[in-house]
Amino acid sequence: MVLVVEAMTLHAHELDPHRPNPARMYDYYLGGFHNFEADREAAEAAEIAFPGVKAAARANRDFLRRVVRYMIGQGIDQFLDLGSGVPTVGNVHEIAQAVNPDARVVYVDSEPVAVHASETLLAGNSGAAILHADIRHVDAILNAPQVERLLDLTRPLGLIMASVLPHIPESDDPDRLVARYLAALAPGSFLMISHGSVDDFDDTETDGIYKLYRASTSPITSRTRERIASWFDGLELVEPGVVVVTHWHPDTGDAPVKLRLPHYGAVARVP
Q1: Do 262 and 206 form a contact (C-beta atoms < 8 A)?
Q2: Residue 70, domain member (yes or no)
Q3: Cβ(76)–Cβ(100) under 8 Å?
Q4: Is residue 107 part of a domain?
Q5: Which phi and psi angles does 244 have, rounded to 5°?
Q6: Which of 133, 187, 204, 212 is deepest in the core (most CB within 10 A)?
Q7: Would you say 119 and 72 are in contact if contact means Cβ atoms under 8 Å apart?
Q8: Interatomic CA distance for residues 178 and 160, integer angstroms
Q9: DSSP structure class, residue 199
Q10: CA 128/CA 146 separation, integer angstroms
Q11: Which residue range forms the structural domain that includes residue 155?
Q12: CATH number of the domain that 119 lies in?
């Protein structure tokens, strides 16, 4: 079953410090500082309504770190990070450029605080840039000056879609959105997707978290593991496939983490 929360168009919102924003809430979950009181209150309320939200956010960030290192190991030296969010420790360019100083990254986000913070963080870094845009505007993103300057779409790249698709309602056809980006990727590119799912819980357990996100600038949609896996059809899945993110190539010495909020993730190569 697909549980769809009331759809809201993800335009580049005007900054409203009094209305919670999921990107800033996520920043708070990760211990960042680019958030407002309304975001902090909503994030704490979300953790009370559905304990485990904060742990899932941190596990997803760790998954991102491992994925970028894996892609770098496969020879990928350019990345497009869609819905990149507010920058906190462990951004794609930091991970990639620590291994390959010539790696290039373009971040895309519609949240003004995320864009401003990214611009500040990336000042002086000629190999990374932030694009203020809605990820559903595929052609505009792929033809943006930042992309044309830093990325070569005729060569393999790493496409990152970390926890952004839950904010794309069914009315905006996430299947087609993923397919349009994939169509622009050169063979040998990699796709990473992570996506939370509460489909195994009943409505009494999830009503609170949905209500909180409905009051934010970007409501959420839950999808099953099978639906998430469908976005990788036709690609070469990297083992172990579509799994809870803590099970994807865990670092040696990582303590086992059991997420109450399943967050599924996978990486696949474009043949």
Answers
A1: no
A2: yes
A3: no
A4: yes
A5: -60, 135
A6: 212
A7: no
A8: 11
A9: T
A10: 9
A11: 56-200+225-269
A12: 3.40.50.150
213 found inside a domain: no
Q: What is the largest CA-CA distance in the chain?
A: 50
* pLDDT tens by residue, 203-256: 777 787 778 777 777 788 889 999 999 999 999 999 999 999 999 999 876 656
Is the distance from CB of 248 to CB of 267 less than 8 angstroms?
A: yes
Burial 41-54, CB ≥16 within 10 A → b, else e:
ebbebbbebbeebb
Residue 185: inside a domain, yes or no? yes
Tell me whether the omega of the peptide bond preceding residue 240 falls within 30 degrees of 0, making it cis. Answer: yes
Backbone angles phi, psi at 191, to 5 degrees: -115, 130
Write down the H helix ranges in 108-173.
112-122, 138-142, 145-150
- The kind and range of the H/E element at 179 are helix 174-183
pLDDT in tens, 158-195: 999 999 999 999 999 999 999 999 999 999 999 999 99
Determine the Cα–Cα distance for residues 127 and 204; give it in Å rounded to an integer. Answer: 47
Q: Phi and psi dihedrals of 155, rounded to 5?
A: -115, 160
